[in-house]
Records
---
Amino acid sequence: MGQSTAIFDQSTISAIRKNLLPFNAKLPLVTSANAELLQYLNFYQLPQPHRELKLGIGTVESDQQSVVAISWAPKHANGSVIVVHGYMDHTGLFRHLIDHLLQCQLNVICFDLPGHGLSTGQPGFISDYSDYVSALDHVIAASRSLFDGPLQAVGQSMGGAILLKHLMAQNSPSPYPFTRVNLLAPLLEPSGWSIKRRLFLITKGFRKSSKRQFRPSSYDQTFLQFVKQQDPFQPRTVPMAWVGALDKWINEFNAFEGSDRPINLIQGSGDKTLNWQYNLQQFQHKLSGLEVQLIAQANHHLVNEIEPLRQEIFAALKL
């Protein structure tokens, strides 16, 4: 992934969390008081603030969890986009997408889901995806108070599932917040789900977690090595509760009556993480406004594919 050799460890993470204020898109970063934040930006090679780019970071409270949000605001933005990451991901792994969205002159708002990255919560734990949707709703509200203009959304893997669950919950009179939605390899059934589900049902009564397997989700070997060996935010176990939440999500989508909202779905034909052909059939059946962009050979973690594939993927975004 090409991360810097800057030091970034649990003590730095604790210092960042301790000093965060409520989310404010105009919070200055380049001061001696927030050296740890600069370490974070340097370690993950995230864009640094300058005269033409404002950066804000802080917490958004959601269901007794402190969700950490970060925004990048170019001087002449023509709208905003919220980025929703996948399971075991966090904002630090999304630098390529952030750079691309900034080049498109969009305000970029990223946040770490509960139990991920800088946010609070047991690592990787959730009892229901509705907790993730609640965090998204709070970030939407905070973003609306900070930025004018149209709001879009991009979701990678589980982030795509969260955006779909958020869409499925739109039964209130308030308008749908997003003018455009892009789903990157959205999560429904993972590969080998029938066997994994049976094992979950057999063992859930006496196992609280299982050992995490770091499987190749991209052709970018540097990225895969970084995630497995260097990223301090990566848990080594998967809580069984999260597998149960995934099972609930699959059943909920199967029972969903459908939507005609325009959605752009980008899927790699080399995805080894998902049962993507089956998932695509389900999405096309339920989502009449769906447009599908198939990227030949691309694996699952589309925002961190090798550069030639990543260029195709980003060109397929509808922004």
---
Amino acid sequence: MPVSRELIRQAIADDLILDSLPAEFDGLGQRYSGKVRENFSLASGERLIVVSDRVSAFDRVLGTIPFKGQVLNGLAAHWFETTASLFPNHMLAVPDAAAMRVVECEPFKIEMVVRGYLTGSSSTSIWRAYEKGERRFCGHTLPEGLQRHQQLAANIVTPTTKAAKGDHDVSMGRDELIERGIITPEDFDAAADIALRLFAFGQRHCAAQGLILVDTKYEFGVDEAGQLVLIDEVHTP
């Protein structure tokens, strides 16, 4: 029996998480709304993260894509499970296709961006800097003569600040981040080391599927016991 277009639209609408959440979420706990995710601090010392269908690029929300939240959440859950033997992460459970229950952590105020290629289009990308003639990027010296999309001689960590909502992230090297008091040398070095290890693992995993992992970002935080933990998401597009 054919299904009407109206029924299909209604079924999709019932599963989407666009700009608002159902009333059942009211009273869950203190709420923080990010560009894509809705966060609820639970009384148990845990956090519920609901991934919406909003699309964010260049530090702003551009619109929505049906089921994007479920896809992102599923990918993050897969990679958290796959990399758990390499490093602890905050994931506890996936109670819904678009939601994840995690350990509450105090996040670092930086994103550990790892790059394997000279590419990118945002204001913080390594290619934009190289194109303008910059040969020093986040503490790394880049040789002359590189081409756009060329693979780098080695994977490098090029951190960015975590800008407040409405502001823009800024690329910044290790020394400047430490000098500004944004992160300690010990925390930076530990996070950078695991970021490179996670990236190399991701590259091997992707290569086995005929894919390349060009670049990505990792976020870290500290749990109640003071342990460094991988948070947010992993290897999502």
